[in-house]
Each structure stands twice: as structure tokens, then as C-alpha cells.
User: Which sequence fits this backbone?
């Protein structure tokens, strides 16, 4: 690969301006060789000094002989000219070279001519005309007898022939020719070849001979370069800040920027780079801005770089990395594929990535420093809260409530009128409702997996039953499988298009999955507008307003008088939060808490409504401890309930510093019930956040192998633990399994893409990125980092 400017040191002649004025083709340099030949001929053909003859010839006789000789010579010359004009063909450069080599095998060409060629090639190379430069380098290599070993090494290095370059630089070192600089270049070539032993040898050799360059205007630069490669960044930076010459300022600035970047001082590195005029630094600036997550400026510099570069593939891969960081997975896939189609190993040669986990999930200090309570109200959290408080549908609410012994049960039930309309003739509504009520009871008692299994069995027995499809979908949504939730909500809505809640929930699940259909939104809006039994402001249009971010529609619904169901109260709390109505949020969350005093999610909403996150994080953490330690919370919900309970509660525990206390409490409970699946799942989940990935993965592995858990959420979290434990092959296998049961889950596919790209399975990564497409989805767990090769 071509080396960067500071890595390839070329000693340029001082007559650069003269070189610029010469003709641009390499053939001019070959003509100069002919001039050398002419010079040699003149030397050989100089008349020898005449020897004195003791006898004087007859003068007249000499005149006659001379005249005859002159005529003869003139005739010969005329014949030669005629023959040459008749037979002469254009002589190719290579023929001239061969004749020169045959006739003057021992002749050494003048160094100045070769240096001119080197300077000309270097100028073309630095301006991006690499093809023309390499042609000249090839011509130079042909005349290597006339080259110094150092300059030969430079030309070989520029062509990427590192093995040959090292041999030339070694010869230069033996001949004491530019010893320190030759050793630096040999070290760089060794590094390019991955030969660290040779690299260390040559860099130390360069250091030992550096004193010979003490009078060089580039002494400080050489000193800095050696120390940069040795990892002595502070010493190198000090030398660059105290240059031995006012020349080569841009080279000093560029190397300073590299060192500052290695030291993590990115802002200072950027300041160094923006002032460089000698060469284009836009790609490097794009990389630095991307590192700082200033992706807008990074893209601006990439756009500038495309106007003057031959490194278009590097630009494409840089753009791909930025797109992966910002959710433009489809665009990233396009860039990567373009480079991959040229050379399958090229994407990883530019950027080698490693799938990582978001450090905030296990670093309490980082979590606290980045904390804001809006994290409890981002788009997905809002939707999950809606699903959590949504009602289950039954045929006979009174009959169901008699079976379910739980406070506030009526708030979670939606009594469906006209049950016979949904059941075939001759079927007993009461009998069906009993089975339905049993599944609902499990769901409301935080036995979601059992409820899900029962609803699945009932929906298979009665596939045309809209209510069963709706309830099955709701359990999937609460378990976090939004692909299957969307599928069954849509089935429910198609079976009964007056079941607007099923239709709206399908749209919400689709929005989470990143495949919301504007056409479907238009259709359901038309159905709602044409229904004369609905008020203009109703919960269905308000929920669609949440999807469309139509605050006016939501506020209108907030102000409407309505029944105090769990869904209405929770939705009003969310609307008040979005609109900034703090008093209304406190009132609505307090009312919800009155109905559900031991519910964890209701308590979290109430806590956030009454505590200002703008106060210090220590005070906020202390408030969490005081509030939740004094509340009689239903811990069964934490162990067995909906996903949102674990997510929200563990985040609060992490911020408050109570997570390790909770982990130890679960471990103690497991001593009495070592096979309690729900306790094991909770422990494994907490251990992800306590940075105990190996322990977490071991528990998840047991849950999958021994207890046969294969739901998408468990498999995904197991992959998170595996990734944290650096068991990437296991993570890939687990994520492949999740894609079968939850194919629309965005983060699952993004994680697969990162992991496949990490192991250089670029084509598989491209497939995953294309399936995700461009999305606003923010990954909760997975990220990636660039690693040095």
C-alpha cells in the first residue's frame, strides 16, 4: 500500500520550480539519456594529438591525396544519409535503453538527471496522478545502476514493493547513505509487512544514527517520527512543537495531529489539520469528526474530499461507517458492497470493526452522567407503556372478574358486546369465556409466558376469533416480540374492523419494527372518520397522533372527560409529559397509583412526575432509594412480568446504586429455589448491567439448554451476554435463532451485521443491513468500534 507522507521520506532537490517547467511526459527523461550518450561519444571521438613525423611529405602529393579522400568521404556520407532516410523507423525508448546498456555497460548515469525524474514522479504522486508517477518509477527502476540505494528504496516503497524496498534501504544503511532516514523507511516497510521484529530493529537503528542528521532542517521531524513509532508520543510532540527549521510546517502539523489523536486530544488534532495547505486533509478531518460523533461535519469533509482524491474507496468506507453509526444501514450496505465488489478483502483493510455493547448499560458512572428521565419516555418506552396498561378483551367481564382475584382487575378488561357475533353458531360463549378468562388471569398475574401459550392454543382452535388474536398479540407485545405482535394485531383487525384498538396497536408495533405503512394509517383514519358512533376526539385518533407526533390531537384528547381506565390514565400521563404539563402529569400519575399502589410501572411514572431530574444526580439517586425502599412493590411482576418492568426498574436501580443489592437478593432466593426459571432470567438480566457477562451467559445458556427457553427476547439477551463475554460465535448463533421468531426486530439484525462484519463475512453483514434499511431506531445494547490492525 502507498505510505503516508510522513512515513515515506523523500529528499527533494532544491530546484523544484525548474522541475515544474519541464515537459510532463516520462519520455523527456529518456531523451536526457541520449544526451549522456552524445557526451560519451564526444569524449571517445576527440582527435588524438598528432605525432611529429621526422620526414615531411611532399606538399603537392598531400593535397591530391586529401582531395581524393574528401570526395570519397563526401560520397560515403551522402550514401549513408540516403540509406538512413529510406530505412529509418521510429526508434522506441526501450531499444534506446538496450543499446545504451549493451554499448556502455559500465557507464554510471549522472545522479542529477535521476533525481529530476524522482522529483517529478514524487510531485505527480502527491498530486494524485499515481498512474503517471508509477510509470516514471518503473523507468527509474530500469536504470537502477544509476540510482542510489536510498532513492531506489523510495521508488520501490511508493510502488508497495516493501520487501525490495527494505533490501535497498539496508544497502543504503551499509553504504552510510541517509542512514537514519533509510532506517526509518525500512521500519515503516516492516510495519506494513507485519514484521514487528524487523520494525523494532530498524527503528532502534534509526534512533542510533539520528545524530548524523543533527544539521538537517528536518532533524526535529525525524526525531519526532522515530519517537512516534516507538510510542513515545509526548517526546515526539515536544520535538514537533520546537522544530529545527521553519520549513516543512505542514508535515510537522500533520504528524502532530496524528500524535494528538493517539493521545485522545481530538480537538487539538483538528486545529492542526485545518491549517494544512500542502495536501488535502479532508478525509482525516472526516474521520476525526466522526470519532467525536459530529457526523454532520464528518459528512461535510467527506463531500469536500471527493472533489480532489484518488481514494474514493476509502471515502466510501468512511461514509459507510458514519451511516452505520447514524442508522442509515441500507446506505451503508450500498457503500460497502461497492468496495466489496472491487476486492472482497478491501472493506476490512480500510476499517476493521468489533461489535461492542453500549457502555452505559454496565457503567454506573457513565449511566449517571448521561442520565435524564426522558430515557423513560423515548418512543419505544412510550409504546411499551401503552401496551403494558392496555386492556385484555373478554366476552363477559363479570364472569371473568369472578375468576380473577386481583385488585383493579376491571381496569385491565374490555368487555366485548355481542359475543355471539364473533363465535360460530352453536358454540357456548360462557365456555369459551371461561378458557379465555383463565389465560387473562395468568397475564394479569404476571405469568405472561403461560398466558401467551394458552392464547396461542385457543387462537389455533378458533382461528377466526378476533378477540383471541388481539389477546395473543398483546402478550407478544408485552413480552417484547413486536414482529409477532404486529402479525396478530393485524389478523385481529382484519377479522373485525370495528376493533380499532387492534388496528392502532398494529400500527404502533409496526412503527417499533421500522416498517410502518402510511397507507394503512390512511385506511384506519378513514374508517374512524366514517364511524358515526365515535366522538371526534377519541383514544384511537389520539394514539395515531402519538405515532404521527401530532401534539394538538393528543392534547385535545387529554382535555376530554373520559373513563379512568389504566390505558386512559397512562396515556394521559404520557401526553402531559410530552406537552410539558407537569401538574397534569402529577395528577394523572397519582390517580393511576391510587388504583395500582403496588404496580412497579405505575410507581415509576409517579416518581418521575414528582422528581426533577435537573437536580444533581446524587440527589436524584438518593430520592430513588427513599421512594422505592418505602413502597410495597409487587416483586412478582419484576421476576415474571412484562419486559418493560425489568427495563425501567433496573435502570432506576442502576442509577441509584441499588443494582448489586438486588442481584444479591435474587441469588439468596435462588438458594431455596435453584430451578426457578423466572428468578434465573432476572438474575441473568441483572448481571448484564453489573458487567458480569460470563456469569450472565452461563445462566442464559442453562435456560436455553436445560429449560428449553427459545423465545426471541431470551435468545437476544443471551447474545448480549455472549458478546460481552467475547463469545462472538455463540452470539451469532443465538441471533440467527432470534431472526426466525422475531424477524422484524431491528437491533437483532443490526447486531448480526456488526458481528458478521467483525469476522469479515462482509456479504452476510450487507444482507443484514439491507434488511434493516434506513431507520431512526436507536440501539439499546449493541454498538461497534473501529480497531487498530
Assistant:
Amino acid at each position: 500500500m502507498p505510505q503516508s507522507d510522513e512515513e515515506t521520506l523523500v529528499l527533494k532537490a532544491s530546484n523544484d520550480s525548474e522541475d515544474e517547467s519541464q515537459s510532463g511526459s516520462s519520455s523527456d527523461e529518456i531523451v536526457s539519456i541520449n544526451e549522456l550518450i552524445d557526451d560519451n561519444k564526444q569524449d571517445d571521438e576527440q582527435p588524438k594529438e598528432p605525432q611529429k613525423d621526422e620526414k615531411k611529405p611532399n606538399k603537392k602529393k598531400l593535397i591530391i591525396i586529401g582531395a581524393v579522400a574528401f570526395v570519397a568521404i563526401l560520397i560515403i556520407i551522402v550514401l549513408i544519409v540516403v540509406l538512413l532516410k529510406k530505412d529509418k523507423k521510429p526508434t522506441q525508448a526501450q531499444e534506446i535503453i538496450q543499446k545504451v546498456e549493451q554499448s556502455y555497460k559500465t557507464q554510471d548515469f549522472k545522479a542529477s538527471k535521476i533525481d529530476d525524474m524522482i522529483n517529478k514522479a514524487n510531485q505527480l504522486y502527491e498530486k494524485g496522478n499515481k498512474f503517471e508517477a508509477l510509470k516514471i518509477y518503473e523507468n527509474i527502476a530500469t536504470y537502477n545502476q544509476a540510482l542510489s540505494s536510498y532513492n531506489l528504496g523510495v521508488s520501490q516503497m511508493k510502488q508497495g514493493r516493501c520487501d525490495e524496498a527494505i533490501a535497498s534501504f539496508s544497502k543504503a544503511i551499509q553504504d552510510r547513505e541517509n542512514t537514519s532516514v533509510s532506517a526509518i523507511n525500512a521500519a515503516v516497510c516492516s510495519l506494513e509487512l507485519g514484521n514487528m521484529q524487523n520494525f523494532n530493529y530498524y527503528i532502534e537503528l534509526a534512533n542510533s544514527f539520528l545524530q548524523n542528521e543533527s544539521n538537517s532542517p528536518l532533524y526535529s521531524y525525524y526525531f519526532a517520527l522515530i519517537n512516534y513509532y516507538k510510542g513515545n508520543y509526548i517526546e515526539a510532540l515536544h520535538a514537533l512543537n520546537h522544530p529545527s527549521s521553519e520549513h516543512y510546517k505542514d508535515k510537522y502539523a500533520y504528524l502532530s495531529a496524528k500524535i494528538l489523536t493517539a493521545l485522545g486530544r481530538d480537538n487539538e488534532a483538528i486545529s492542526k489539520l485545518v491549517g494544512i495547505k500542502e495536501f488535502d486533509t479532508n478525509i482525516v478531518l472526516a474521520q476525526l469528526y466522526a470519532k467525536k460523533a459530529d457526523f454532520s461535519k464528518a459528512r461535510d469533509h467527506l463531500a469536500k474530499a471527493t472533489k480532489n482524491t484518488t481514494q474514493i474507496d476509502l471515502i466510501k468506507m468512511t461514509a459507510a461507517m458514519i451511516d452505520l453509526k447514524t442508522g442509515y444501514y441500507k446506505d451503508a450496505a450500498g457503500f460497502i458492497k461497492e468496495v466489496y465488489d472491487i476486492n472482497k478483502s478491501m472493506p476490512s483493510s480500510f476499517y476493521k470493526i468489533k461489535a461492542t455493547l453500549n457502555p452505559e448499560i454496565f457503567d454506573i458512572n457513565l449511566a449517571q452522567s448521561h442520565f435524564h428521565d426522558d430515557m423513560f419516555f423515548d418512543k419505544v418506552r412510550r409504546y411499551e407503556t401503552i401496551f403494558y396498561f392496555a386492556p385484555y378483551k373478554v366476552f363477559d367481564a363479570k364472569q371473568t372478574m369472578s375468576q380473577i382475584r386481583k385488585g383493579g382487575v376491571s381496569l385491565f378488561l374490555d368487555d366485548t358486546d355481542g359475543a355471539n357475533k364473533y363465535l360460530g353458531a352453536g358454540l357456548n360463549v360462557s365456555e369459551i369465556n371461561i378458557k379465555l378468562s383463565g389465560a387473562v388471569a395468568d397475564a394479569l398475574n404476571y405469568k405472561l409466558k403461560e398466558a401467551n401459550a394458552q392464547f396461542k392454543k385457543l387462537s389455533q382452535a378458533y382461528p377466526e376469533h378476533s378477540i383471541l388474536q388481539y389477546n395473543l398479540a398483546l402478550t407478544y407485545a408485552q413480552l417484547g416480540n413486536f414482529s409477532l405482535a404486529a402479525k396478530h394485531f393485524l389478523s385481529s383487525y382484519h377479522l373485525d374492523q370495528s376493533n380499532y384498538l387492534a388496528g392502532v396497536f398494529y400500527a404502533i408495533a409496526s412503527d417499533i419494527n421500522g416498517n410502518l405503512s402510511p397507507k394503512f394509517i390512511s385506511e384506519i383514519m378513514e374508517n374512524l372518520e366514517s364511524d358515526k358512533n365515535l366522538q371526534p376526539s377519541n383514544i384511537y385518533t389520539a394514539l395515531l397522533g402519538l405515532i404521527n407526533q401530532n401534539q394538538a390531537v393528543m392534547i385535545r384528547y387529554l382535555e376530554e372527560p373520559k373513563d379512568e381506565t389504566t390505558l386512559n390514565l397512562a396515556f394521559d400521563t404520557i401526553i402531559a409529559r410530552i406537552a410539558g404539563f407537569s401538574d397534569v402529569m402529577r395528577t394523572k400519575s397519582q390517580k393511576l397509583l391510587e388504583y395500582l399502589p403496588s404496580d412497579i410501572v405505575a410507581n415509576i411514572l409517579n416518581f418521575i412526575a414528582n422528581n426533577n431530574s435537573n437536580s444533581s444526580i446524587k440527589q436524584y439517586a438518593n430520592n430513588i432509594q427513599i421512594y422505592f425502599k418505602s413502597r410495597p412493590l409487587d416483586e412478582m411482576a419484576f421476576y415474571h412480568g412484562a419486559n418493560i418492568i425489568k427495563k425501567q426498574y433496573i435502570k432506576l436501580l442502576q442509577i441509584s446504586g441499588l443494582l448489586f443489592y438486588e442481584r444479591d437478593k435474587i441469588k439468596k432466593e435462588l438458594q431455596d429455589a435453584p430451578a426457578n426459571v423466572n428468578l434465573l432470567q432476572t438474575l441473568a438480566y441483572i448481571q448484564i448491567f453489573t458487567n458480569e457477562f460470563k456469569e450472565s451467559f452461563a445462566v442464559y445458556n442453562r435456560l436455553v439448554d436445560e429449560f428449553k427457553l427459545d423465545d426471541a427476547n431470551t435468545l437476544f439477551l443471551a447474545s448480549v451476554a455472549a458478546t460481552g463475554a467475547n463469545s462472538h460465535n455463540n452470539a451469532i448463533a443465538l441471533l440467527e435463532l432470534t431472526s426466525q421468531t422475531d424477524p422484524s426486530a431491528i437491533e437483532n439484525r443490526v447486531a448480526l451485521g456488526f458481528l458478521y462484519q467483525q469476522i469479515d463475512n462482509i456479504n452476510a453483514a450487507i444482507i443484514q443491513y439491507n434488511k434493516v434499511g434506513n431507520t431512526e431506531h436507536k440501539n439499546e445494547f449493541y454498538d461497534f468500534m473501529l480497531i487498530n490492525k
Notes: The longest strand covers residues 352-357. The beta strands are 352-357, 392-394, 413-415, 782-787. The chain has a mean pLDDT of 82.
